[in-house]
């Protein structure tokens, strides 16, 4: 079939020239543990935020054995700020299971990997592909979007992953990385079709995105607000934005149990001794496939020690997220 050949050839060429090979988890020889750490950290956090955390974390916990011995208190300074603490708890649990039940080695089979806390089908495929070089497409929102748009004209189209796993002949480790980078740089939420090397045979481009627009209207399914995480944007007059991280702007990410006004106020009162005015959510969306409420808030009383950023930094951060409505 010509089109899959065209698809992978163009993608691989693009990746050779423009891929993000500098990312620390893209090194040639990488252990299953290192892949797993990167994938867990990347689950709900944008790439630029994860890089520093990942490097520091691996300096402190270079192996699964070292992590398995860590207490929550020892672990937290290397994780705090990434938000969504259930992920952190699962990391500690998984490290202990890998050491106690698998002799310190991540299993090489998908089903066993998926029994580890916090490891879903995507993470299992990513470990098998990136660490063990196995022939798996690591199917996440990036792959779904690119395959869906290119072959069917709509990012949420039903795609038979198994067929593509067989039809695409390139080394899947490189192909997975190439599609992830391509999704983040070119086939973004607002795709840069005019500069895309795939446009000649892309269904989305041929139909000018109309199929995707129609299907979005048709779906209209209820947003699962109860299960949504909260991205809290703390600001002063929308000119200064207070960040959960020092080096770059990051909203405060709160779990679903704290995604409403009273819980957000309580969180900031208890954790930072601050009194807030919290607005209703101004956006309901999916960030990397996770339902997310975007919420603005202002500090009414109390002294903070947060780093201050401006609107442009917030815009840059939003650009990097894979957001769907
Ligand atoms: S032409 Fe547009 S929609 Fe198609 S793959 Fe390229 S960027 Fe994505």
Q: Overview of this structure, please?
A:
With 325 residues, the chain is an alpha+beta fold. The protein has 2 domains: 2-185, Hypothetical protein, domain 2 (Endonuclease III, domain 1, Orthogonal Bundle); 225-324, Nucleoside Triphosphate Pyrophosphohydrolase. 47% of the residues lie in helices and 13% in strands. The chain has helices at 2-18, 32-42, 47-60, 64-68, 72-75, 85-101, 110-113, 121-131, 141-152, 161-167, 172-185, 203-206, 210-219, 261-272, 311-320, and strands spanning 229-236, 240-243, 252-254, 275-278, 283-287, 290-301, 307-309, 323-324. Strands 1, 2, 3, 4, 5, 6, 7 and 8 form an 8-stranded mixed β-sheet that branches. The longest helix has 17 residues, at 2-18. The relative contact order is 0.11. Bound molecules: iron/sulfur cluster (SF4).
